[in-house]
Amino acid sequence: MRPQKIEDVVGQTDLVGPGKIIRRMVEAKLLSSMILYGPPGTGKTSIASAIAGSTKYAFRTLNAATDSKKELEQVVLEAKMSGTVILLLDEIHRLTKPKQDFLLPHLESGRIILVGATTENPYISINPAIRSRTQIFEVKPLSPADVKIAINRALTDEEKGLGKLKINLTPEALEHLSQVTHGDLRSALNGLELAAKSTPPAADGLITIDLGVIEECVQKKALVHDKDGDAHYDVISAFQKSIRGSDADAALHYMGRLIEAGDLPSISRRLLTIAYEDIGLANPQAAARTVQAVTAAEKIGFPEARIPLAVAVIDLCLSPKSNSAITAIDAALADLAKGNYGEIPSHLRDSHYQGAAKLGRGVDYKYPHDYLHDWVKQDYLPSKLKQKHYYQPKDNGRYEQALKEQYLKLCQAQGRPFS
């Protein structure tokens, strides 16, 4: 089911959609070497294949870890004899220096258009000499809607898919398959193929793939599912609300459901959001500890990841809570949305150019570090917003209590009393 044209790529619309960078390269036939990085099964190889199919260039695939320099030499020889070759080099972060030194001049000559694929962060794991000669694009997990598109294509394509079989994939099974693979299309299609080819057909030849079959074939139980997929988000919602409500047992229960589904990305994103949205300034140290726990979980993976995640959940549940930070920024954004922003005071404007003083830019600005306690009274907000107070401090933790005391003092000293 690998796409042969760039317009057939599923997902990654920010890269291959109309008017986007890779689509522009293909349409103009002005290709440059690139590195695609992201989780497995998200379309790195598919994008490379589609680029080759759309441009009619030869397409070769090698693995930087397992293929030797000799295989690279053969690809280069082909490029010299027959023209440009698009080379997909998987696991490019494992490219050795001898292979790299051999490859670099051919990238510069344009004979080889390199598409490097990696699950590692290229800014950390890939040699600067390769990075400097490539454009780097992040490939993100597909959405459930994208996965459904690809599944339906596979069910109807008679040449490359399962279209010659009579298959009834139930809505519940489709929903589960699109959700539980977490944007890994390869896993979704592998599970679908196994289900289709291992399920005995009925007397009329119809192969019915229901939820139980899909659960068995992808080895992920549908602890959360319904035909509309709402239950998955219900669990995530219940997870956050349980932490916000300081119920550690409920939060552990809902996180257990997500762990059983193997949904580390959702757990990680939600915990980081909760740490800053719901605990926030009442206990900033808890947010820092959550970042550490999530980092550890992502490094070690399941099943051990459950341990630092549980530490973070219990810590957040039993911490004092404050949503004053999100409330403050949302209030500021709401003013902007209404066009209520005013002009930046002249003394705060950039003065690092010739003629700025004549325009009054930066004039009369008082440098706080030149004054006692590194503070001096002056206006910072636009004049029409001078009395605005977006931050509404709370008293739910020692840290924010101290911030509140300081905030009130500063507002009073600036002539902006807090009411």
TrEMBL record:
This is Replication-associated recombination protein A. Residues 30-142 form the AAA+ ATPase domain. InterPro entries: AAA+_ATPase, AAA_assoc_2, AAA_ATPase_RarA/MGS1/WRNIP1, ATPase_AAA_core, DNA_pol3_clamp-load_cplx_C, MgsA_C, P-loop_NTPase. PANTHER family: ATPASE WRNIP1, WERNER HELICASE-INTERACTING PROTEIN 1 FAMILY MEMBER. Belongs to the AAA ATPase family. RarA/MGS1/WRNIP1 subfamily. CDD domains: AAA (cd00009), HLD_clamp_RarA (cd18139). GO terms for biological process: DNA synthesis involved in DNA repair; DNA-templated DNA replication. Keywords: ATP-binding, Nucleotide-binding. The keyword Coiled coil does not apply. One of its GO terms (molecular function) is ATP binding.
